[in-house]
Structures are given as C-alpha cells and as structure tokens.
Write a structure and sequence with these properties.
Blueprint: H1 2-19, H2 23-37, H3 46-72, E1 83-88, E2 95-100, E3 103-109, E4 120-127, E5 130-135, H4 149-152
Parallel strand pairs: 3-5
Antiparallel strand pairs: 1-2, 1-4, 2-3, 4-5
Helix pairs in contact: 1-2, 2-3
Length: 154
Amino acid sequence: MWLLYLVIAVVAGLAELFTGTFYLAAVALAAVFTLVADLFLPQAVLHWVFLGASIVLIAASTWLRHRLARKASGVDDLDLGQAVEILRGPDSQGSYRVKYRGSEWPAVLEDGGSACPGAAAVIVAHEGNLLHIALLPPAAKESLCPPSSASSSS
C-alpha cells in the first residue's frame, strides 16, 4: 500500500513542477502524509487519511493562493511613474499622443491643463491603453511651447 502513495506523491510532485499550481502540491503532500500514517495506522483507513488530507490541503492551498493574490494586487503597476514625451495634442477631445516604450500612445492630462509637443510628463494611471499623465516642471525657466504670434508682436 505504501508503494501506491509513494507513486502518487512522486507523480503529483513532478506534475506540480510543470504546472505551477498549488493543487498538485497539496495532493503530493497528502500522499507523503499518508506514507507517514502508514507506519502508525492500519491499512484499512489509509484511503480515508489520504482523502481527508487532500481535502484539507487543497482547501488550505486555495485559501493561501487567494490571500497571496489579494496582497499582490496591491503592487503598483510598473508603468506608473515612467517618463513619456508629448508628441502632439491636444486634439478636439483634449487627448494627446505621447511616446512611451518606443511607440505612440493616447494620453490625457490628469490636471486638465494643456501641454506642448516636446514636454515631459509621467504616467500617473492608465485605463486600457489610454495613459493618464501629469506634466513635469521644465528644468529651464523658458517655456517649451513655441512663441505665439501674440507674444512675438509685443
């Protein structure tokens, strides 16, 4: 009988390495627990020990997996805080086109202001592929916007 549970433990353990689920690890641990129980309990109850240990360990691994997933969902998005360059905009809907990761992305300014092409900004949020950006203050005191005709005539 011990050979059956040894085979279950090894097969489930190896399968766990290829699938990455907690469930097969729980079955493998239940089989190991049953192997240890085989030293102390009669063989007539070993199937019940294996069944009980499998149910308890699968339930515990499911709970642990969901708990870890809830904690991981609090991890910030890796795109947040990344710098982008404004390429053009705003258009009639107030959206911009920015350069990020080597391609153009649609973006909107979070503060509702306006920006000029060439201005630097950072990503503060995103919805799908729409980036929400905030302008960075310019390092120099001169404006990044080209001079308007009204200010050049004065």
